[in-house]
Amino acid sequence: MAVEVKQCGGSAVLPLSFRRSLNPFPCHVSFQNTQPPPQLARRFFTLAVVKRSPKRLKYSAPRFTKDDGLLYVEVDPFGSDAWKLDPIVELLKEGAVGVIPTDTVYAIACDLRSHSAIDRLRRIKNIDPSKPLSILCRSFKDIDTYTTGFPRGNGQGLTNIFRAVKNCLPGPYTFILTASKELPKLCTKYGTTTSKYASRKNVGIRIPDDAVCQAILEKIDAPLISTSVKSPKENEWILDPVVIADVYGPEGLDFVVDAGIRVADPSTVVDMTGNSPQIVRQGKGPKQPWMIAEDEDS
């Protein structure tokens, strides 16, 4: 079964059965027409609709109440067609929760300024109250705003950690820092009532070295709250965006940005809140000379 998609006076056939599980090679959609005129380019983007689900949350914004489907946008991983991201950015500004690529694995993300979106993200991912969220930042300016910053030294000969960190970012690292008062409470405290809130003073920050992720951050002009995408039943990364749409779409996900299948290589997590930078999880980012691995800690 196929559906005909109109584009600038032409048409193309988009297979509804686009699941990569039936085909080991990614599917591609090709149009007979040439590149649309610049004035129309922003109006057309690849999308697919996931089946309606009674679990899907309802929203007050008209855009959300009109359609219970999931927006699926396929983009060039090198960011050459960033205009396709405009509808995604508009959804994020309206409180949407969706999946975006990073330089490691895919992440479920939402606008840091939307408290309701952060709450929805936790429900969609079913995040345990003890699990922290991370901030996807545009630059070190965001890090300075939502944390107390990097320590100036560790008292053991390393007097300029900030300079060392600048050589790692953008890159596949998550640095745990002390949160500032500017960070929304939902990012630092968990629970549904005041009595259940558990104070959390630290937060993970990232500046991903990914063209698509950076384009989204620049377009929305704000950092995003995120959590990596794992299977809800198995402790494994979900690397195929099509599978992510199948798994989390029925739970209330609003969109998926497809920039290709990723590799199961998460970010390296470094705790910067102690006396020395401690590696909590070794991932894609190489261990730097000034970092201390767990097995080196005496």
Automatic annotation (TrEMBL):
Residue ranges annotated for the YrdC-like domain, each copy included: 82-285
Gene3D superfamilies: DHBP synthase
Domain of life: Eukaryota
Ranges in coiled-coil conformation: none
InterPro entries xref list: DHBP_synth_RibB-like_a/b_dom, Sua5-like_dom, SUA5_domain
Alphabetical list of NCBIfam families matching this protein: L-threonylcarbamoyladenylate synthase
PANTHER family: DHBP SYNTHASE RIBB-LIKE ALPHA/BETA DOMAIN-CONTAINING PROTEIN, THREONYLCARBAMOYL-AMP SYNTHASE
The protein's name: Threonylcarbamoyl-AMP synthase
